[in-house]
Specification:
The complex is a heterodimer. By secondary structure, chain A is mainly alpha-helical. Chain A has a domain of about 30 residues. Chain A has 2 helices and no strands. In chain B, α5 packs across α9. Classes of the chains: A mainly alpha, B mainly alpha. Chains A and B meet through α1 and α2 of A and α5 and α14 of B.
Chain lengths: ~70, ~325
């Protein structure tokens, strides 16, 4: 009887981190928020958008700082 | 090695016995901390503490011309005022206009100059030095002499424009016109800082190995193809670095514009930093101006993060 060696795939990552929360996606979202905030800050059309610009940039910056520590 | 030993021996011999005794008992880690401690203390005192203090002041009614007035917490009032103020909004738009056009012009002209200088024609070293002169001048000097150049009666700029277009020189005022003043400051900044962009782009162009171009020539790639497929992609991280540096600097631009137009006519050239200075040192609204400074800081910090991410992506390619 020939025994087949049991090979464990040790290089496969453990699925502990949800896909949606991975660094790439979240970082892109943070970058989009920062850029949106800056556009809102300097656009000449609506003062309401200008009013919400800083909050948008701030959320983007804080999110960027946090998610840049997430795994790839 | 023998040289090193002798230097080490000499240093050990020259160390006063009292200090040597004290240092001998310290670990490597402690000695490393001892060396970097002055820098860290300086950094904390000059950068970190003022930043934290500004954040604190932005929530208070503190005014620097009334130091004895009781400091009251006003919460987010200043942030709400700034983000609802049409004047500050206008200054943000003026800043964006200034930053966008200066960066665009400086990058295009700077890269063009770098591309020409990189060809190593006869006298290229001399011309490189000549081109770099504006960058070496103080912004105060540049602001003052461009003020003279822009004079409608005696200014050279108006005469040059008149020579090429036929418009009478005294018929337009670069610094006094609402439509021309924003372009006047863009021209001066471009004149002054294009050499800087050129220098960084030149470093990028010089870092491209010759054999890549030689291989492309062997493959009969045209000059145009070589530029788009080799030169530009390989110089792109350097161009992006130049854009980052100039973008951050121009977002904070103050001195040159203050000397040229003082924010006028009206508030056409009142950039964010000039508006900030007016609130802080003319109206003495320290809390308000602190909140304004924090808003500008967060925006620049956010943009710098985005840019560094883009730069890393380009470098990885």
């Amino acid at each position: 009887m020939k025994l087949e060696p049991v090979v464990k795939n040790q290089s496969a990552p453990r699925k502990t981190w949800p896909r949606w929360a991975r660094r790439g996606i979240q970082e892109n979202l943070a970058v989009a928020l920062i850029l949106l905030g800056v556009v809102m800050l300097v656009q000449p059309f609506s003062i309401v958008l200008y009013g919400y610009s800083f909050v948008t940039v701030l959320v983007g910056v804080v999110m960027f700082i946090i998610v840049s520590k997430f795994p790839e | 090695m023998s040289d090193f030993n002798s230097i080490a021996d000499r240093a050990a011999a020259a160390t006063p016995p009292a200090i040597a005794r004290k240092v001998r008992g310290l670990s490597d880690r402690a000695i490393a901390w001892l060396f970097i401690a002055p820098t860290i203390v300086l950094l904390l005192a000059i950068n970190i503490f003022p930043l934290i203090w500004t954040v604190y002041l932005s929530f208070t009614n503190y005014a620097s011309n009334r130091p004895n007035r009781p400091v009251v917490n006003v919460g987010l009032k200043w942030y709400q005022d700034i983000l609802g103020s049409p004047e500050i909004w206008a200054s943000m738009q003026a800043t964006a206009h200034f930053v966008f056009w200066t960066i665009l012009l400086q990058t295009v002209i700077g890269f063009g100059l770098a591309y020409l200088i990189d060809r190593k024609f006869r006298g290229h070293a001399f011309w490189t030095t000549v081109i770099l002169i504006p960058m070496m001048l103080s912004p105060a000097v540049v602001g003052n002499f461009w003020k003279f150049l822009y004079q409608p009666q005696i200014g050279l700029f108006n005469y040059i424009v008149s020579f090429f277009t036929g418009i009478p020189p005294s018929s337009f005022e670069m610094l006094g016109s609402v439509t021309l003043a924003p372009w006047a400051i863009i021209i001066v900044d471009t004149w002054m800082w294009t050499p800087y962009v050129m220098l960084i782009c030149l470093a990028g162009l010089r870092s491209i190995p010759d054999y890549i171009h030689e291989a492309a020539e062997v493959d009969r790639a045209s000059r145009w193809r070589q530029f788009w497929s080799i030169t530009l992609p390989m110089a792109l991280p350097f161009i992006m670095l130049a854009v980052l540096f100039r973008g951050i600097e121009n977002f904070k631009m103050f001195d040159m514009v203050m000397l040229l137009t003082g924010g006028g006519p009206g508030s056409t050239t009142e950039l964010a930093s000039i508006a900030l200075k007016r609130q802080a040192f003319e109206a003495y609204r320290t809390g308000y101006s602190s909140a304004f400074a924090i808003i500008l800081f967060v925006v620049v910090f956010g943009l710098a993060n985005v840019y560094v991410k883009a730069l890393n992506k380009v470098k990885q390619r």
